[in-house]
Amino acid sequence: MAVPTVRPQFLCLVLFLAITAVHSRFLSSSADNPSPDLVSDGVHGGDRNLTSPYYHLLLKSEVPVVTESCEQSYGFMPCTTTALGNFFLIIVYGYLMFLAATYLSNGSELLLEILGPGIVGGLFLPALGALPDAMLIMVSGLSGSVETAQSQVSVGMGLLAGSTVMLLTLIWGTCILVGKCDIRETDSIAIDGQDTKGMHLTASGVSTDIWTCYAARIMAISVIPFVIVQFPQMIHSTAGRQVAVLIGLVVSVSMLISYCLYQVFQPWVQRRRLAFAKHKHVISGILKHLKQRSLGRLLDDDGEPDREVIRKLFGTIDQDKDNYVSAAELKALIIGITFEEINFDRDDAVAKVMSDFDSSLDAKIDENEFVHGITKWLNEAKRAGSGTAPDAGPRTMKFLNDYHMQTKREHTLLGAEQETEQSDEVIEEVENPRWISFKAVLMLMLGSAIAGAFADPLVDAVDNFSAATSIPTFFISFIALPLATNSSEAVSAIIFATRKKFRTASLTFSELYGAVTMNNVLCLSVFLAIVYIRGLVWDFSSEVLVILIVCLVMGAFASFRTTFPLWTASIAFLLYPFSLALVYVLDYVFGWS
């Protein structure tokens, strides 16, 4: 993986710090050496002549000038009271936060390349991705006195709500537009790389795997701490608000730990689910093969498995006529079957079929075990296929075709194509892992340092810009700050979606849902900890309502479907202006805050 060069970013950073130093020295010198008077006695230059007879007249003629002052971050960072100046500072500090997010992202990927998934992918990567947002939220609540923190904490809430809404609306909808493919009519799954339907609202779209649905459900569940904190205001109670904040903090931290553990163990769970889906696919393939060899008469006139026909099939499989089907004969049967679009270990498939049939545990299948096993498989296929299409008759085997299509679709939605692509890739050892690890740690430290250093100035610039323009800080942070802290992640997701593949679409939307989940648990935990420790007032009803609406609507939307036609992008895009309008109406028309 190519590591981005650091030199241009460092030059920008050094140039900015140099301008800052010159600016602060100018302010200092201006304060120590005030400007001379315009009137001079002709001898002492610009100094005041206290003995001049006109001095008292000059004092009376001077017009007092009222100057507005701003407080410099760290005592030397530039500041201004003008709207244009603060807008410039927001751009500069926002770019630095974007730079920090980029370093953290690239360093995380290098670390993942060295250490692999598991602890790194489950614990460090999600936390590092949310670090810039968490830094800004922390700074917004720790600045100055309690009164100052209470006024600036809306910046943190605006960032929290803005990041969630932007990822689930603008970025989500854009990924649908750039990643759309033709949707196959038979199984409603998008065809990789095929985009001939143009902007057709229903025949073009994106498909994801079942694990992406699980990620969306987890995202929807992660809003529970918001409901807990908001509960006293929902019942119009002023008592117990701090207790609600503490309970919400405990629940949020618990959900953060649970989510990280899920991320750690998810690959193991995913492999188990995929192995089970492959076994079901093997079962459906064997049943279809036996159906063809029995001329479609696996069922009797009553629609029940025909045991006599099954016994005859046993005789055809028992090639050495010893009244047993051995593992070698079973493997020969499986090798002779053409399994569509499935890659599996034949020996493992034989072992699992043997475990299903061999009730006597003697490593071979007799006639009764074979009949019992095939009967059980047929009954399972009938139950599974009953929900898709009714059986047209006892002699027809339509339910087997339905069962086969169902297992094939389940196999695809569990990410089988992703596993096949990964198995086809050549796994190369990382050259010079010690140097790669050093660069990864250096990037992580540099990104963390930049985020920690410039979070406070960015919050101050947003606060000053709000004061200069009379625009509420929430709306500034809602719109502007997510562009800085999430732009690297957003651009990466959009570029990944343009590959127009089932695998990349699944990864793209899973990362979006994961980022929102980390906002709802990690960033909210930081926010609630600051509110509780500093004794701030929780008064964000409209903001919480927006987060709940967007997360629940998009979460419910993505939890129960794996294919998203093009028309679904319009719902996501409309939710963004709806969120802004809803906060404005609730706060400034109905006076919620």
From TrEMBL:
Pfam families in the record: EF-hand_7 (PF13499), Na_Ca_ex (PF01699)
InterPro entries reported in the protein's UniProt record: CaH_exchang, EF-hand-dom_pair, EF_Hand_1_Ca_BS, EF_hand_dom, NaCa_Exmemb
Annotated GO CC locations: plasma membrane
Membrane association type: Multi-pass membrane protein
Transmembrane segments: 83-103, 110-131, 151-178, 214-231, 243-265, 436-455, 475-497, 509-533, 545-564, 571-590
Isomerase as UniProt keyword: no
SUPFAM superfamilies associated with the record: EF-hand
Annotated localization: Cell membrane
Any one GO MF annotation of this record: calcium:proton antiporter activity
Residues annotated as domain EF-hand: 305-340
Family, as annotated: Belongs to the Ca(2+):cation antiporter (CaCA) (TC 2.A.19) family.
Protein name: EF-hand domain-containing protein
